[in-house]
Amino acid sequence: MTLKVHELLNNARLNKGTAFTLEEREELGLSGLLPPHVSTMKEQVERALSSIRRKESDIDRYIFLSALQKRNERLYYRLLIDHTKELMPLVYTPTVGQACLEFASIFRETSGFYLSYADKGLIQKRLANWPEQDVRLIVVTDGERILGLGDLGANGMGIPIGKLALYCACAGVKPEQCLPIMLDLGTNNESIRNDPLYLGVPEPRKRGSEYDDFLEEFVRAVEKQFPNALLQFEDFATGNAVSLLEKYRDQLLCFNDDIQGTASVVLAGLMATTRISKIPLQEQRFLFLGAGSAATGIGHLLTTALEREGITTDEARARLFFIDRKGLVTQCRDDLPGHVAPFAANMPPMDLKQAIDTIKPNALIGASGTAGVFTEEIIRTVASFHRNPTIFALSNPTSKAECTAEDAYKFSDGRAIFASGSPFDVVHINGEIKVPGQGNNAYIFPGLGLGAIHGKITRITDDQLITAAQELAGSVSDKQIQHGCLYPPLDEIRNVSVKIAAAVARDAERAGLTSKPVPENFEALLTAELYDPLY
Q1: What is d(CA 390, CA 417) in angstroms, rounded to the nearest whole number?
Q2: What is each CA distance from 418 to 77, 86, 141, 362, 517, in whole angstroms?
Q3: How many other β-carbons are positioned within 10 Å of the β-carbon of residue 479?
Q4: What is the number of other CB atoms lying within 10 angstroms of the CB of residue 239?
Q5: How many beta carbons lie within 10 A of that of residue 441, not counting itself?
């Protein structure tokens, strides 16, 4: 076999497998190296789906799909685009959580880019080794807070890989423009450090100035090496996530999906609930279980959205309440982080049940990472105050959800408006079909990234996130709302992403945050430019 043929069959971007035509096989020296039948893309998809469905576990299906991505990229994305609802839970949450836990043992081929503290002073030189230079999207993590699973170190690389797969499948971003990066600065998870198969640096995490200086060098290296890229921070611990976003959001095109993407998709869900409850958001009270970066990110964006409805900042914050490990976040506490302090209530200390009895929240929003904490008693109590209480169990993966969809509906006598972070099956109750909404960030970040890339956006703002939420909420049909579903079907996600991209680009242009004018026919141009994996 010549080197040329070998490279062709092992280049995932060029390889077509059995879809190479007879003419191509003859011209490229492939004749005899493949079975004689020339497959269509449809036949290859059916064969791959059959293989996936025969697997006994989701982690085996994940491994199969990962291998396919490394072998035949176009077939991989054709599968994801045409079967998004079935395959997204395998490529991303909840299965990606298990994949990260087992990353060291299931590792087959390298994907993405790794930087460790040993690369300090050489980061831009290292980034120059990446074979693609027209990088437009970078998803980076340091692996310290992977979903609700905690510090997984270098095993967290599964998250950037999965996120960028969704950028391509859900928003048509070209795979060659995507770069997943792991910043391996150690791990404080001793079980991982002691794993003989662990592929990362088996040392405690860098902290303080060592961490900050490394991130500063990394960000500046990205600016120089990939000046047209959107940098997305993913699954950093709360303190670092907040400080990195505050430091860099006004310096370069960057975005934190855990803070901003989650906030936007939850805000969209809350906007959609008003079509069921008939209660405007500015008249509701919101109780959050969890006060990390995701929960307070929702709180800050919700505050801005409520201000748009005509109430003051103080009036908006007075409708938001947070519970952390110590109970209700109140003004009598002097240990509150900066991102939490603005939401401290002028109330005495109390636990979750006491807070619900006192506040009588319209919406109970879980971002705690604590499974089952929304008990029967909690759900029944909230439901006793309101005809259609909102219950969002947002923690990922499914095993960390604050409650199941079935429990939310059952303990509210079918009246709850429910959404979750991971998917739940349809629930039949009281002769009705309830379709749980999945507040998946994939409804927001792909469209936002698409708009940033093609709209030449220079900064991501809260106004853009609210615009994205409004566009997403408006895409839910009346029929879907009637079944309690707050988000559109996943098979519509590409169209939704295009609409979000166009809307945020227009918003950015009005704010003077685009480097070029946005064309009048921008949405049509986007649709024509979407990556479409065909042979």
Answers
A1: 5
A2: 31, 21, 30, 12, 40
A3: 8
A4: 15
A5: 25
Return d(Cα 152, Cα 234) in angstroms, integer.
13
**Residues 16, 163, 400, 456: which is the catalytic one?**
163
Model pTM score = 0.94
φ, ψ (nearest 5 deg) of residue 492: -105, 5
Mean pLDDT of 94-105: 95
Q: Is 148 exposed, middle or buried (0-12, 13-18, 19+ CB in 10 A)?
A: buried
Instruction: For residue 93, give the nearest of 490, 497, 532 by alpha carbon.
Output: 490
Q: Are 214 and 185 in contact (CB under 8 A)?
A: yes
Does 163 participate in catalysis according to the annotation?
A: yes
The residue type of 187 is T
Helix, coil or strand: residue 53: helix
Long-range contacts of 126-131 (CB under 8 A, 24+ apart): 127/221, 127/222, 127/225, 127/226, 128/225, 130/179
pLDDT above 90 for 8: no
State both tokens at 309. Answer: 């409805």
Dump pLDDT digits (tens) for 391-437: 999 998 889 999 999 999 999 999 999 999 988 999 999 999 999 98
Catalytic option among 62, 76, 77, 92: 92
* Predicted confidence (pLDDT) per residue in 123-157, tens digit: 999 999 999 999 999 999 999 999 889 999 999 99
Helix (H, G, I), strand (E, B) or coil at 89: helix
- Digit-coded pLDDT (tens) for 358-374: 999 999 999 999 999 99
pLDDT band at 78 (very low <50, low <70, confident <90, very high): very high
Distance CA 35, CA 45 (A): 17
How far, in Å, CA of 356 to CA of 115, rounded? 46
Distance separating alpha carbons of residues 257 and 478, to the nearest angstrom: 28
- Can you tell me the distance from the alpha carbon of 510 to that of 43, in angstroms, rounded to the nearest whole number? 47
